[in-house]
Structures are given as C-alpha cells and as structure tokens.
Amino acid sequence: xxxxxxxxxxxxxxxxxxxxxxxxxxxxxxxxxxxxxxxxxxxxxxxxxxxxxxxxxxxxxxxxxxxxxxxxxxxxxxxxxxxxxxxxxxxxxxxxxxxxxxxxxxxxxxxxxxxxxxxxxxxxxxxxxxxxxxxxxxxxxxxxxxxxxxxxxxxxxxxxxxxxxxxxxxxxxxxxxxxxxxxxxxxxxxxxxxxxxxxxxxxxxxxxxxxxxxxxxxxxxxxxxxxxxxxxxxxxxxxxxxxxxxxxxxxxxx
Amino acid sequence: xxxxxxxxxxxxxxxxxxxxxxxxxxxxxxxxxxxxxxxxxxxxxxxxxxxxxxxxxxxxxxxxxxxxxxxxxxxxxxxxxxxxxxxxxxxxxxxxxxxxxxxxxxxxxxxxxxxxxxxxxxxxxxxxxxxxxxxxxxxxxxxxxxxxxxxxxxxxxxxxxxxxxxxxxxxxxxxxxxxxxxxxxxxxxxxxxxxxxxxxxxxxxxxxxxxxxxxxxxxxxxxxxxxxxxx
Lengths: 254, 231
Hints:
The structure holds 2 protein chains of 2 kinds. In chain A, helix 3 packs parallel to helix 5 and helix 5 (153-165) runs parallel beside helix 6 (183-198). The N and C termini of chain A lie far apart (41 Å). By secondary structure, chain A is α/β, with parallel strands linked by helices. In chain A, a hairpin with a 2-residue loop joins strand 4 (61-66) and strand 5. Helices cover 37% and strands 24% of the residues of chain A. Chain B is mainly α. Chains A and B meet through helix 2, strand 6, helix 3 and helix 5 of A and helix 6 and helix 7 of B.
C-alpha cells in the first residue's frame, strides 16, 4: 500500500431510512494524518456518514474502503462479511460520541483497558500502562478510579477520547463531541482534540465549533440533505465558500 | 386432654414461644425455602427472558405459553397441582421439593419479565460504544449488558424475594411445616387463645421483610456508588 493512496475512500455511498434518503451518493477521500471537519445543518446526514464508516449502520449502496479494504462486504456484489471480520474492521475506526457513552459500570481506567484486554488480548499490565499514559495526556490521571457518574461531562468526554485512542485506530471519528457540554468545558475537550491533530491522528470531526475547524482542520466538507455540497481547504472554505448553501450556513453560525 | 381449657399464654409464655425450637425451625424453613425458590426462579428466568427477546418465533411462543400458564392460574392451585396431581401422574417429589418447585416455577414467570426489562433497559448507546471498540456480540453481552442489567434487576428482584418470604405461607396448604403451618398447628391445639401464636408469626414475617429491606437498601446504595445512579 503506497503512502499516497487515501487512507479512507468513500465511494457513492447511499443510505435510506424507509423512504427517506439520508445519504445520497456521498464520495470522499481522506488522506493519512488528515483532519477533516464536516459542517452542516442538523439532519444533513453528517452523523449517519460517521456511523456508516464505523459500521454502526449498514449502507444500502456504494462502498467504503479503509487502506484499500472494503468495509462490511466481501465484494461489490454486496455479500456481507462474517460478523467476526466486521468486528475486526471496527477496531480500526474509533468513535467519540456526543453523549460520551462511557461504560457506566466501569471506572475510567477500566473503560480504557476493557477493549485492549478483551479484543487485542493485551495483558492487564500492558493495557493499564497505556491507559495511564492516555489519562495523563487528557489530564485525568487522578480520575483513573472514578466512575462515569462521578465525572463532569467534559471529563467523561476526555476519558472517552482516551478509550478510543487505546485501540490505536487508523481513523478517529468525532460525532458532535462538544454539543452536550457546558460552554465552559467545551474548550478542555477541544484542546485534547487539537493536541491529537498535532500528533498526526487522522480524524473526521462533525462539529459546530468553527474555531476548531479554523485552528486544525485541513479540509472542511459541507453537507446538506444527505449530500456533500462542497469540500475545500479550511482557510478557503471560511474565507470564500463556493457553494451558496455553505455561504448561507456560515452566515448563520458565524 | 379433658378438663378446663388451658390459660392464655402470658407475656413470658409468648416470649418463650418466640424463641422455642419449633418456631425457630419453622422460621428457618420459611427463610430457606423462600431463598431457594427465588434463586431457582432467577436461574429459570434467564432462558425464559432470552427466549422472549429472541427473534425465533417458536422460542418466543414457548416463553409466552409458560408465562400465560403460570400467571393465569393461582399460586395455591399450582402448589396443590405439584403436591397432589404429579404423584398421580407418576412423579413423586418429596413434599418440600414439590413446594419449592411450585414456588420457583411460578416466580420464574415474573423473573423472566424482570430480566427481560433489565436487558432492554441497558442503554443501547452502551452497546454501540462497545461495537466501535471491536467487541464481539458475545463479549458485549457478557461484559457490558449482563453487569448493567444485573444492577437494574436488583431493586425488583429484591422486592420479589421479599414477597417470597410471605408466599411460602401457602406451603401450609400442602402441610410443609413452615411458619404459617406451625402457627396453625399451635392455634389448633389452643383454639381459645390463638392470638399469641399469630402475633409471633407476624413478628417473624415483619422481621424477615424489614431485615431484607435493609440489606437490599445497602446493596442498592453500593451499586449506586459504583457508577449506578437511578435514572
């Protein structure tokens, strides 16, 4: 696999919920170490696109390739992969949710070590050493033994990021990671994400935080009604959006 | 014995009754049959709940039929069935076993509802989070769903055990000597003054119920400290 090939390739992906089409022929390439921010009004299909990449929803047509390997299906004939192959593919795509979704019955440390131990078969010692490092990186070393309901929203989200990073995914997907947070804790989560971006973590971020997009995004995609209307380098997108709909959207949120 | 009726038990007589070996052993039978029936019911409730949740129609139908059968008839009738009818059909169970089995099978219908509700009650987003970490369905069930469902089950299951302490009184009808049967036996022999015997029985039923209530409260508080707020 040469280094110039896209890490993630999304080709003409469509998804229907009943008669409502939430993704319409979406195509997108993502380079290694790239940070892509997806903007768009709610209901535009941003979250569904992330969930399709994470294989939390099954797409109805099109294909998604991660490092050249088709996700979820054996071939273009749409024969599904067996469950254990799909589980293995899901390890490679990390996800951070709007509602954090930490495991409620486990401590911060256990949340981070569970999958490395059970899925990657690391020893407890290995998994905990990595987890402690990650907790340190998100500034929560002293919260290792706390349960999620003892942590603030911002702290829970930082643990959730550490949990996703512990699997060392090839791409990290953020689904409105700060939308459920109090304004004063948004920054602590964004700071962690900026740090990850500077470390070269490949990320797709669905967010309304344009400051984050301006600060670290390489490119910005604008979605509406299940379509990507514009993809542009971040600076160009914010300075002079091409599509009238993106311009109108920016006008509303800025 | 002919002659004047015996005098009523006084305070000392009642206190002596409270700690008499016959009463204590009857209390013990009540406690262990209730716990045994509840434990068996919880175990039987698991496959029933999974059958109800299953997408396989025949399994669903079996679970539905079971619950229909055991919830559609009185517990007392079920006890009598296991005690009187099974021997006619050729299955002879020791008295106490027949009693516990009847209590347990009846309770299993309710436990299956509790277990099913607890499994459904685990937030689907917990499942999704585990999915994105590459965990298999079986791992998610075992490591995420079961531990969280157990905590959700704790309050209603505790209430069922509390109910079970009292439900065992129906065993009196098939002459298992638990607390109610023992009390009735005493009262039969002293029909003029039944009150002290029933007062002693009431004392022990309240004691069991209250003591378990306190234990349950502690267990629930502990679960809450360990990440489980009632929501």
